[in-house]
Structures are given as C-alpha cells and as structure tokens.
Amino acid sequence: MRPSESRSTALRQPILAILLAMGDDSMHGYAIMRALEEKTEGRERILPGTLYATIARMVDDGLIEERDAPKNDASAGPTRRYYRRTSLGRAAAREEAARLRALLRMAVAQDLVPGISK
Known about the structure:
- The chain is mainly alpha-helical and 118 residues long.
- The protein contains 4 helices and 3 strands, in the order αβααββα.
- It has helices at residues 13-22, 29-39, 48-61, 87-109, and strands at 27-28, 64-67, 82-85.
- The chain has a 3-stranded antiparallel β-sheet.
- Helix 1 (13-22) packs across helix 2.
- The N and C termini lie far apart (37 Å).
C-alpha cells in the first residue's frame, strides 16, 4: 500500500499483529516476536519465516521503516535490523481496529464473547 492509496480490505493477521506488537517502539525481529507473545499472553505467535517475509512486505508498503540500531544495542552477533511503525502503519492499524470493533459489537450482541455481556 502506497501512502496515496486507501485500504478497502482487512489487514492480514500477521501485519496487524506486528503493527500492534511494535506499538511506537523501534524493535528488531526477535523482539517483535517476543512482544507479540507477551502482549497476548501466549495466544498469538508468529514464526520467523512468516515474520521476516511480512516485515519485508511491510517495509515495501510503507507500513514500517528500517531504523538504525540504538547505540546501547549489546547484541554479540551481527548488527540487528530495527524497525519502527510509520504514520501510514499507525493509520492502517487504527482503521483495522475500527473494523474489528464493529465485528466485535456483533459478536457481543450474539453473546459470543466470554466475559462481556450485552
């Protein structure tokens, strides 16, 4: 998705998961995987192959951008690639959250969501 384009379809699940896991932080791939798992209490996971292929597409689409590693990055191996959500990525996540909220309202109205009553 280019900045001038408007989205008319839902974000694919891995894209939304990455955008939400990152928040407004700069993160490397492994940190994104860990953040997603922690923030969802283990209910959502993304495997490395899916993660890195999705990250590459998201960079191409302008949803995230590559950033320089922080000066305090103490990794012993090769320099990690860090990514940050762009304003386009934030807008796409916001639009998708609104779409999901409408679906969630329908599920709540049908008493399909444990712990949330009408």
